[in-house]
């Protein structure tokens, strides 16, 4: 292996999520999801943007996958909308929805693109929320496993790589602590940990069932991982980092990889009366699933700085930059434990996310040392303002610089002994960036639409051609 390439079996890819690209939110039997309802609340999203049309991938998937094939993409990670398969979350299968995803899979396979399925990317059927509270009720575990195993059984001959849950830490934090995502609840800490426990059980039961149905397949979860640095060498800052890691990183990754919660974090939460109750049967299930999981999925965007936080200091509830006006993010933390100031040594995006390529290598090395699991980078990318010229060109050297630095860091991690199976950029086309609307663009392919609408025409950015060369050279084209 030369200095600037990945191993020969490495998969170069890109990613998306159903709600953010598909549109067609009530077509062909699809049911409503929690997001379809949540975005109707005034002020929740940038300029009241929704995914009702999104970037119309539902009607344009053939065009989009053809662009992937022309680029040379080797894997495409996409999510399946639970509401297209079971419109009410359970009951009768919606065959039209199944056929849609089967067509995506078949088209990818025809082009030699490895499909990678995410079973849950934040869009639970609204019917289950209304019936019993969705993730708040233990009933969701069996309903999720029923949905997941139906798809695994249906597509096991065509799809090797599967992801159970996308960014469980994010959808639960924003849903039950900060009210920024559905169901929009604020400071429900005990419920937050209960919801997470249900999600862990759904993941674990799915992994165990997966290995029965598809023993040669590969499965894991995707975690939004922000490795941490202590602000200074003060012991209290070092302790703040340790507590942050146990509460905000290892709380999830330890369950995926070891089948147990970090003991000091659990003890702390127990003292507050918010720790989840774990039965002996559940403990056995979590450990069994951890022994079967194939990889750690990582969505990497930035690192975090940790500093001791006094009792009257920063809280978890502060303004988040969803407008792209740099400098509007506010510091968050847990009083008496840690706070997360900006890193004075790093540049940031317009959305105040730190740009730290070395942090990706750090993340891979830490996972390798702590868990000894293979790694799938399921997301990494730059959200930015892009401009379509009068010649229908998009010059995005900032995205190329960002991705090049991160891929170089990934190669460094690989050469240091980390087993990395795939790298999926976020995202292939521009899409709806959840709370940020359509102005925050991530794709290699520009989509002509904004909050008011647009033609939906696709245009290749400069980064499209750059990544094409990276793939063709297996990383050898990097400087």
UniProtKB/TrEMBL annotation:
InterPro entries according to UniProt: GH, GH_1_N_CS, Glyco_hydro_1, Glyco_hydro_1_AS
Gene Ontology annotations of biological process type: carbohydrate catabolic process
Protein's name according to its UniProt entry: Beta-glucosidase
Similarity annotation: Belongs to the glycosyl hydrolase 1 family.
PROSITE patterns xrefs: GLYCOSYL_HYDROL_F1_1 (PS00572), GLYCOSYL_HYDROL_F1_2 (PS00653)
MF term (GO), any: beta-glucosidase activity
Naturally occurring in which organism (per UniProt): Enterococcus sulfureus ATCC 49903
List of catalytic residues: 379
Cellular component terms per the entry's GO annotation: cytosol
Key words, A-Z: Glycosidase, Hydrolase
């Amino acid at each position: 292996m030369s200095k600037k390439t990945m191993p020969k079996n490495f998969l170069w890819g890109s990613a998306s999520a159903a709600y953010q690209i598909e549109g067609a939110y009530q077509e062909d039997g699809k049911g409503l999801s929690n997001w379809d309802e949540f975005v109707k609340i005034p002020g929740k999203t940038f300029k009241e943007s929704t995914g009702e049309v999104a970037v119309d991938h539902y009607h344009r998937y053939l065009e989009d996958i053809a662009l992937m094939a022309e680029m040379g993409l080797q894997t495409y990670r996409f999510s399946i909308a639970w509401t297209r398969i079971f419109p009410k979350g359970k009951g009768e299968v919606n065959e039209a929805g199944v056929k849609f995803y089967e067509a995506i899979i078949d088209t990818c396979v025809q082009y030699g693109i490895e499909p990678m399925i995410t079973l849950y990317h934040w869009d639970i059927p609204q019917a289950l929320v209304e019936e019993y509270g969705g993730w708040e009720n233990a009933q969701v575990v069996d309903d999720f496993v029923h949905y997941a195993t139906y798809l695994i059984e249906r597509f096991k001959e065509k799809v090797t790589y599967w992801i159970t849950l996308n960014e469980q830490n994010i959808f639960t934090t924003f849903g039950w602590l900060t009210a920024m995502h559905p169901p929009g609840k604020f400071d429900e800490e005990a419920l937050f940990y209960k919801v997470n426990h249900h999600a862990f059980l759904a993941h674990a039961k799915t992994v165990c069932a997966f290995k029965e149905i598809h023993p040669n397949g590969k499965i894991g979860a995707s975690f939004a991982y922000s490795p941490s640095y202590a602000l200074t060498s003060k012991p209290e800052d070092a302790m703040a980092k340790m507590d942050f890691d146990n509460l905000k990183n290892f709380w999830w990754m330890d369950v995926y990889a070891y089948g147990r919660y970090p003991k000091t974090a659990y003890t702390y939460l127990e003292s507050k009366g918010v720790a989840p109750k774990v039965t002996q049967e559940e403990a056995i299930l979590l450990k069994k699933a951890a022994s079967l999981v194939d990889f750690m999925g990582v969505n990497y965007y930035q690192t975090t700085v940790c500093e001791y936080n006094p009792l009257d200091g920063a809280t978890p509830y502060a303004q988040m930059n969803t407008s792209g006006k740099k400098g509007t993010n506010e510091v968050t933390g847990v009083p008496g434990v840690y706070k997360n100031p900006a890193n004075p040594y790093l540049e940031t995006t317009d959305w105040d996310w730190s740009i730290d390529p070395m942090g990706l290598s750090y993340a891979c090395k830490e996972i390798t040392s702590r868990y000894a699991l293979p790694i799938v980078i399921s997301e990494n990318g730059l959200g930015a303002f892009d401009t379509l010229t009068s010649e229908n060109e998009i010059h995005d050297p900032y995205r190329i610089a960002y991705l090049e630095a991160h891929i170089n860091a990934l190669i460094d991690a690989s050469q240091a002994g980390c087993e990395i199976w795939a790298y999926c950029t976020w995202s292939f086309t521009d899409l709806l960036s959840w709370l940020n609307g359509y102005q925050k663009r991530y794709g290699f392919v520009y989509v002509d639409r904004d909050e008011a609408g647009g033609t939906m025409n696709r245009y290749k950015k400069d980064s499209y051609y750059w990544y094409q060369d990276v793939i063709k050279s297996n990383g050898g084209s990097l400087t």
